[in-house]
């Protein structure tokens, strides 16, 4: 590895600007461990293979999750509250597991092999679900037409398959998206612009997979059987794993750099050890590795926030430092870049917390929205009845529309108006999408109230009345979810990019856990106060409209807090990148 770095620096010095065009100098390697050739590796030629397996995985995930509450109600005979909680628990685990997968990929395994291994586990989970439907001993009942209580062995195998899918998703989701983004060089202006588009088209493919899952797969569930749909998902996933591996020669790879938590602990230990030293009046004397000695990664500009941590870079023994760096303990003296990386992570925590309410709203689309659909008239035209889960596809339609409008219309206009590459700041995009979550919950509350009034007169409302709340939530996803992906990938330290995508996914996961917790709290509170819970076994006697009003109010208050934090947020500032260095003074920092 050291020889490759020396060769990289030698080639870079010899070839200058022409070398920058021919070779990729961003610490990545090709599949043979060499400096990547720009013309034959990376960008869209590599991203195609990566997006293909994402499309298949999302079809599998949404094909499972969208109809899961119906499976638990119909086959496993669970009541509404239990089924909703179990779906939220599974979704929560599935979207929190990437924190572990992302950490292992960044620290030890690498993104490519983490995706490969986790995809195999994913297929194992789908295979278990398939076997639970076809093998006689593992079926829910011997006679499916008269199934009072499913076999215990079926429940065990079914849940084992589900949580194998969760485990597979834990390594697949954070690494695949960040591995795709690694195919674009941030130091190359053309590739940097393509990378901004990558997240939009990634989500376009995601929505296509979602559409296939909630329409084709859900239709097969109800018309042919769950076993056939699980078999289709298993075969599709297995095929796209082979496709992903076939693109091996086109990828750019990043080697794991060890635990990203260790440098952060070193900053904290060094800052605490030097807590009694006076704070320097300017950042110039603070310790930083000279740019000529930096073999990989990027130097970050100093910022004036969380100044206590700056003490970790105060040089106590200048003579010893000049005599030899080997005498300096990394637990006593750290660089400004390491300090700024810790600041980036700490600054993300309030942003992450204020996005959880959005994740809580998204959780309703795969639980209560779908259960509402089961009580409604699902005939859209004469002789055509759609499954209740298929209405979820409108959320993907809304997201596709908003992503396309943003990419093709808004971004070019905003770039011309603001004269910046991005058009608007990432947090502005996220906050704009949060407005739609408030509107979606408000719409859902009004539609549910109308449905309840019609149900009192024994009139079934048409399922298309759910379309507005799904479409509005999909519009919000196109801004907030895509923005969160870009934010957590772009703003984390370079050594934590898989973990960054995992942080984004954890917003949805923790949002699902929060939804389960909120359901439990509201259930007990309403039962004790009025003697009638908002969540009854009979949906027509429940008060989901009040629950949606509660979510709308929480989302509105949370949006105010998010705007307050976003206005005071300092974005990542990297030395040597003109587009970002220009913002250093604006961020309250200095570029060394």
Ordered list of secondary-structure elements with their pairings:
Blueprint: H1 2-22, H2 43-65, H3 68-74, H4 80-96, H5 98-109, H6 111-134, H7 152-181, H8 189-223, H9 226-246, H10 261-273, E1 302-303, H11 318-323, H12 336-354, H13 356-365, H14 368-374, E2 379-381, E3 384-385, H15 393-418, H16 426-456, H17 467-490, H18 497-530, H19 544-567, H20 578-581, E4 589-590
Antiparallel strand pairs: 1-4, 2-3
Helix pairs in contact: 2-7, 2-8, 2-9, 3-4, 4-7, 4-18, 5-6, 5-7, 5-18, 6-7, 6-9, 7-18, 8-9, 8-15, 8-17, 13-18, 13-19, 15-17, 16-17, 16-19, 17-18
Structure description:
With 592 residues, this protein is mainly α. The chain is 66% helix and 2% strand. 46% of the residues are buried. It has a two-stranded antiparallel sheet with strand order 1-4. Strands 2-3 form a two-stranded antiparallel sheet.
